Amino acid sequence: MESIRYGCASSSKSFDVIGFGALNVDKLFKVKRVAGVDDESYIIEIREESGGSAANTIVGLARAGLKTGFIGKVGDDREGRKLIRDLKKEGVDVSNIVVERGVKSGIALCFFDDKGHRTIYVMPGANDYLNVNDINLEYASRARILHITSFIGDAPLNVQRTLLEHLPGSVRVSLDPGAIYAQKGLSHIEPLIRHTNILLLNHEELRMLTGKASIEEGVNTMLSLGVDIVAVKLGEKGCFVANGYQRYYVEPYK
């Protein structure tokens, strides 16, 4: 079994939440309409933002006043510097974001229109170079909650699995698999789910992972794998939240 790096950080709970997921610069293209195969459209506006599911969540939590940090990897390029700089501006600790020399940072090309249609293409870049030697167990152990989201490649997924196998029980784990991990199937991410306390996903991702069309049946499958709380995001309908004892529909935030 692969082992992870032990650092000299204090074991006290210095962070409310540490994020662990892909770091990408989002190149956002607003288009007249999202084109299909062998079709054409045109670009109305272009903008650039730092992104990545875990990073977006961590920034939101930092803005809410929580103490946050991040585990990830970027390249030694303009995009990598932007990703680190933008997180630092938000008050996120970036001491465990590794810079990989000679590699491009992750980029997501996002095309969207006014009708809500979108297409996303991701170039993982440095994210796929993440390995167990980049991970400091003491740092991760200083979190009350470790929030995990997806990577494109299997190598960083295996790093996440290895970290969870070594993580002390005092750290609660939240997992938002997104479509990328859901599409891999339950067999690929079950090792993560079995170490997860709080599972966050939408109805389609739940269906992809469990094969159950019913929300309640899908949630029961996840609870049977040892998850403490399952929250199913339902868009404008709110959220369905369940544990082994109680189930609630939560109204959407207005």
Automatic annotation (TrEMBL):
Coiled-coil parts of chain: none
UniProt record, GO biological process: phosphate-containing compound metabolic process
Keywords: Kinase, Transferase
Kinase listed as a keyword: yes
InterPro entries (alphabetical): PfkB_dom, Ribo/fructo_kinase, Ribokinase-like
Residue span(s) of domain Carbohydrate kinase PfkB: 21-252
Any one Gene Ontology molecular-function term assigned to this protein's record: kinase activity
UniProt entry tagged with the keyword Cytoplasm: no
Protein family (similarity comment): Belongs to the carbohydrate kinase PfkB family.
Name of the featured protein: Carbohydrate kinase family protein
